[in-house]
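Researcher: Go.
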Amino acid sequence: MGSMGKSQTLVEFADQVADTARAIAAFCKSRGYPEPTLHPSETEKALDILPVDAPLDVQIARQDLIDAAKRVQQIATDPAQFLPELAVHPQHIACIQWLCRFHIPGLVPSPGTVSYEELANLANVPLDVLKSVVRMAICAHFFDEPKPGHIAHTRLSAHFAKSAALQDWAEFLADATVPMAIRFADATQRWGATKSKTETAFNIALDTDLPFFDYLNKTPDFRKRFAGYMQCVTSTQGTAIEHLIEGFDWASVGNGLVVDIGGSSGHASIALARSYPELRLIVQDLPKVIETSVAQASSLEDSVKSRVTFQGHSFFEPQPVKDADLYLLRMILHDWPNDEAKTILGHIRQAMKPTARLVIMDTALPEPGTISLSQESQLRVRDLTMRETFNAHEREMEEWKALLAEVDKGWKVKRAVQPFGSNLSVMEIA
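Model: Structure:
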């Protein structure tokens, strides 16, 4: 848990690292699964550290291992080393952006190696720059140099080679997320306590007067990278679609109609349609986003395609679907300050028939130190990113309840659950 670092010693944390590592290794051995190593075989590079069906106690051991290892590093690092260590991270991000920009992961063979000279020719990049970038990336275990002058994949870089969406995410991180964070202090200095969505760190970093989603709508390259980012974020454990599927009784909807508001490419709706073959779903998003989503959905299997439709709609306009059984807001309201959030919720409330339900899947911030260090760090990142992008923030549960009551005093959080490993809570509103 996040609070465990208040009294434990270096040795106690180190013992926890050893104990949890042994537990994970023993589980892998019992299942005939390869024990995690720094240099996995070519076959093992395609595998996750743990099998997807690993039991809960093993998943918890892995989380405890990560947290304890971080605490060991924190204790062992002197204050004088803090800033030099911190300076490593933006350079790693810059290197991954550079590698993705020039499609380097896809040019490295798997299995096998490639020389720096051959790779520089394939990518049409300067040899000396390539060496500098790759060798910095190797410090993050992104690529390996098994023999002098020759590059090979690691488990991490091999995954990037297979995923265009991961590469889009890396570009979005470098082009938007990091610049926004760096200009956060400038935005506060310039505009103080403003809640305007055009007076943000995003506006300074991207040099635009447009709010985020208007800029997204007008900038195709930015929109593509954001879509890749969203695709990856929704597939990571913290925001995995599985948590949405498991966190609510979707069978209770039967063959009812679900409206996935702000659903982007429809990844959540598609997963729900595959899991519940009676559900009918409408994915709503801005018209230009929907154009891309429809094209991507053209290859879906007929059994899903026939039940998932797409509709151009801004959630700041009145909700056109009046006969839905359930409205879904997944990772939407955290983008918006309370005034805009109330507008979004108000349009849904006005469209809802008496028996309709609302499901919100979003962040509910914990009390400090009450969850794992890694998980809390990710939630705090999300909170700051919302401030930097929208002058919004991630809400605590009491703030969620107050927001809903301002829209409709009769609205209550009927049920809220945060599945293990999820950064998001699933809230049923009735």
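Model: Residues 2-76 form one domain.
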